[in-house]
Design brief:
- The complex is a heterodimer of chains A (516) and B (125).
- Chain A has two domains: 260 residues, no CATH class; 192 residues, no CATH class.
- Chain A is built from 22 helices and two strands.
- In chain A, strands 1-2 form a two-stranded antiparallel ribbon.
- By secondary structure, chain B is mainly α.
- Chain B has one domain: Orthogonal Bundle (Helix Hairpins).
- Chain B is built from three helices and no strands.
- In chain B, helix 1 packs antiparallel against helix 2.
- The chains are: A mainly alpha (516), B mainly alpha (125).
- Chains A and B meet through helix 6, helix 7 and helix 10 of A and helix 2 and helix 3 of B.
Amino acid sequence: MAAPAASAIDLSRALVLAPPPVADWLVILPVAWCLLSGAVLLMLRKDVRLQPPLAIAALSVLLLLDALLLWRVVEGGPVTMVMGRWLPPFGIAFTVDLAGALFALFSAIVALAGGLYAAESIDASGRRYGFYPFLLLLMAGVSGAFLTGDIFNLYVWFEVLLISSFGLLVLGSEPKQIDGAIKYAFLNLVATTLFLIAVGYLYGLFGTLNMADIAVKAAERRPGLPLMTLAVLFVLAFGMKAAAFPVNFWLPASYHTPRIVVSALFAGLLTKVGIYALIRVMVMLFPVEGDALSFLIAVAAAATMIFGALGAIGQSDTRRLLGYLVISGIGVMLAGVAVGGPGGIGGALFYALHSMVVMTALYMATGIAGRLCGVFDLNRAGGLYGRAAFFSALSLVLFLSVSGMPPFSGFWPKVMVAKAAIDIGAWWLAATVLATGFLTMIAVGRVWALAYWRPEKTASEPAPRASAMLSLSALVALTVAIGLYPDPLLQQIQAAASLLAEPSAYVNSVFPQGAR
Amino acid sequence: MEVPFALLIGIFFAAAVYLMLSKFLVRILLGVAILGNAVNLLLFTTGRIVREVPPIIPAGADHQVAVTANPLPQALILTAIVISFSFFAFLLVLSYRAFQDLGTDNANEMRVAEPATDPAPPTGY
């Protein structure tokens, strides 16, 4: 049969006919690059000496791509690209606004630092097992989640990063890891399934999966739609991914079990994807329901902060202590989300970026400390300050930064969240943020007093590895730089927060003519 | 047709939640499998259920004339089936491995990562 004459069909009603500007390819390149280099590393996984340099080069390119993408978004506003040239909302859209670009850039920094740290700490069998391919595929999932503009696509990227994280988590196959992985895998699978249920209902209600389209349609058709049910499902699913209080027990059960660099990457990347998705959905898509649920989120936030900080005080294993500190940080971000407004959302975004850098660096510092002491147990560790003074100074900076002391990067977002909470009259939430900082100070201060200042008890004497010290120093330099000169980052974060609350620029980038 | 499907999905969810509340990994695994199928059925139902009418726009018309099922949720299910199947396979192997290494399939007895007798941190030097 002859095809109908092509001239009779007006393709411009279905397809984007103009080729996208070259700079717009930056939207898709971070994901495509991670998938490509992950596949190449997978093919070369027997070549254990080639793996680290190739992976570090690939992650450096990813960092460069994300930096260029952020520059493009800062200069020209949100950028959209659709797959297969189908006009949105029919084609899967990748839409990058400031928040997504900032998160992508910081995740690339964390991944590069992790790749560098792993160069000497993951041995040949770990490399043969596929540490680096898993890392690159994890980054594909994380970048995709930050850059996509389609909610079902977001679900797919969640699963990509989840399955890669399973691979990283069981790397080494010790009984302890299997135990942690069981709890991590089952509970995270339930969380993403809840997310999928919410997506199914969302499609049933709106007939679209494009986030810009949903934002507009939700605003137009709000009365009579059961959006509250949807919003609660999303809060539960993303709260579980982010490890918010009543649904967070998978995190302390698993984060201390894998190789320390894997814990560092997880602490920097995974829970923050949950927070990012929560902000994206509750602030941009369903702002009215987000406001209605803000008291619930605030209570969960306060409980998460206190639970995390008290849990950290009760631990004698420094790795488990850090797992609880990840949770208390999530509480601060949730407090920002609950308070809302430019200060609250900006504070949550800022705290997430700070936490990505500092929690990763803290796990790395703990890894180095564990190597120097031979143990992670606070009852037996000691004498680090006398043995490695520079490393101890770096650790002290991180301890102060995670507690929110000036002049490091943890101070400013906590000020933003606490001030925004006081401004709307939620003094108890602000007080919880400050009390959490105090309790965190006690937990990390005790690590400092016992593992660093206490006179030597153990007698192992290896030097810190050069690559580990390099990546730790780079992350510490970043937290100091952000703490001393937060202005450029702060401006972008405030712009990102207002763009999330008022997504007209985001919608215009997806539907340029205003026609839908 | 949607109402019986809604009831069926409800039964699926109830069975899945009941099984996942168990402490034995095999039952939790079955619960996860049923949960995945419940969600797939839910997605399927959101796309409208009708007799087999192809979703093809006839010549001369510019929109759908007959009432047809929406093909997009079916595409979503295909994705979700692949994902939930691969996760189920991974969890199956992980659970078997846990049974081999930890010697139990009772989640309450899996205390290797979080020992019940963990020492408290010291209060002084």
